Amino acid sequence: MATPLILEFTKMNGAGNDFIVIDNRFYVFSDEELSALARRYCPRRVGIGADGLLALNAPQQEGVHYRMRYFNADGSQGTMCGNGARCLARFARMAGLKAAPLWFETDAGLYHVDVPDDPQAPVRLYVPPPQHYTPRPALETSLPETIEAAAFIWTGTEHLVCFVPSVQAVDVAYWGLQLRHDPALQPRGANVNFVEVLSKSAVRVRTFEKGVEAETLACGTGALAAALVAWQQQRVEQLPIAVHMPGGVLTVGVDPTAQHGFFLEGPAVVVYRGTVEVPMPLVP
């Protein structure tokens, strides 16, 4: 039997959206192996417990500081994760990457991020403009009058934005699952955001995430989707927008001086560091 690998990891969270984070510049796990790690250690009660696994990879392009790899708890690969990106940026800074801003590659394109030296200060992620905005998509799911499927939008990954009178009254587990699998959104499906407008510059959001297949305490790309759709449809009147999620508050705004004008800002916190014995090989 092969000797187990002692894997060092850091547990982090962004507004309650939690992650296992590893420095894959050292381990050089393949995507298939990272997927296996996510399936093994993300389940709660029987693993470390997390919404997903983040890997800090060496960059593939000149002038970029690192490559972000993200895998959901079920092992599926995510193109982008807003809370995860902020956490990985803070991890990269702690791992010795001192450039300001930090530029990194994802499967959704290039991003950059400002990481303050203060470990308790929020991290600001600059994002490219959203794509594939489709107001009132033609869904096959029959919805109650209290749920308005307002738009599909891509903010690094696929999102459906639904406006409701009260997010607390929504059965997120039921309606999130139904809409996430709606035939009109296949083959990739979509994260489903239920959005309540609080004021001219604030919304409350609950998100059902694909790959996790459950509601999460926060979703960064979901916060972007909810805020930008509300702004586009004039349901809110001004940026920045405070996005209240079960795990905390994220801010979506615009900086006209930045190369990528829109930003997502919020906490990126180290919870603890640890090691785990990983049976090898990970993939037969």
Word description of this protein:
Strand 7 and strand 8 form a beta hairpin. The chain is of the alpha+beta class and 284 residues long. The protein has helices at residues 24-27, 31-41, 82-94, 172-180, 220-232, and strands at 5-14, 17-23, 52-57, 66-72, 77-78, 102-106, 109-114, 123-127, 131-135, 148-154, 158-163, 191-199, 202-209, 214-216, 241-245, 248-254, 262-266, 269-278. It has an 18-stranded mixed sheet that branches. The chain starts with a strand and ends in a 6-residue tail after the last strand. It contains 5 helices and 18 strands. The mean pLDDT is 96. Helices cover 18% and strands 40% of the residues. It has 2 domains: 5-128 and 267-278, Diaminopimelate Epimerase, Chain A, domain 1 (Roll); 131-252, Roll (Diaminopimelate Epimerase, Chain A, domain 1). The radius of gyration is 18 Å and the shape is globular.
Please tell me the overall pLDDT: 96
Give the biggest beta sheet.
18 strands, mixed
Order of helices and strands: EEHHEEEHEEEEEEHEEEHEEEE
Q: Ranges with pLDDT <50 over ≥5 residues? A: none
Looking at the structure, the CATH topology of the largest domain is Diaminopimelate Epimerase, Chain A, domain 1
**How many domain regions?**
2
Distance between the termini: 13 Å
Shape: globular
At the fourth level of CATH, the homologous superfamily of the largest domain is: Diaminopimelate Epimerase, Chain A, domain 1
What's the CATH class label of the largest domain? Alpha Beta
Estimated radius of gyration: 18 Å
How many DSSP-defined strands? 18
Q: Which class of secondary structure composition applies to the elements?
A: alpha+beta
The CATH architecture of the largest domain would be: Roll
Number of helices: 5
